[in-house]
Design brief:
- With about 130 residues, the protein is α+β, with helices and mostly antiparallel strands.
- The termini are far apart.
- A hairpin with a 2-residue loop joins strand 3 and strand 4.
- The protein has one domain: Nuclear Transport Factor 2, Chain: A (Roll), CATH 3.10.450.50.
- It has a six-stranded mixed beta sheet with strand order 2-1-6-5-4-3.
- The protein contains three helices and six strands.
């Protein structure tokens, strides 16, 4: 299979993805979700959350923000891109900056670089 997606486009989508998790303004968050996720996107995080399409993914992010106000996501490594695949690691920190969780996301990407099918894996809590 040949490369179908420019790595720079995927890097932009991943940056928008992280920014969406941190955006508390609903209008800004929805815009970031639309830029990061393909129209037919799916998102599954073991076993906590799932969403089909940008609207459900936005709702999922909003619910997580309501449950953990002030927490922040940071890209820890990646994105590593090849063909139509990407993986990246993120951290979640408390409002005081203490690490709370680490996760690895693996996704297929659309030809325009947006995330299409995302599977998230929660690793051990940060510092564990």
């Amino acid at each position: 299979m040949s490369t179908t997606t420019a790595p720079a486009a995927v890097e932009t989508a991943v940056a928008d993805y992280i920014a969406a998790w941190n955006a508390t303004d609903p209008v800004r968050r929805r815009a970031l979700v639309a830029r990061a996720f393909a129209d037919d996107a799916t998102y599954v995080v073991d076993p906590l959350m799932s969403g089909d399409g940008p609207e459900q993914i936005d709702t999922m992010i909003a619910a997580a923000q309501a449950q953990h106000p002030g927490h922040a996501f940071t890209l820890a490594s990646g994105p590593d891109v090849h063909h139509d695949r990407v993986r990246f690691t993120w951290t979640l920190s408390t409002p005081a900056g203490a690490p709370l969780a680490v996760g690895l996301d693996v996704a297929t990407v659309a030809k325009d670089g947006r995330l299409r099918h995302v599977t998230g894996f929660l690793d051990a809590p940060a510092g564990a």
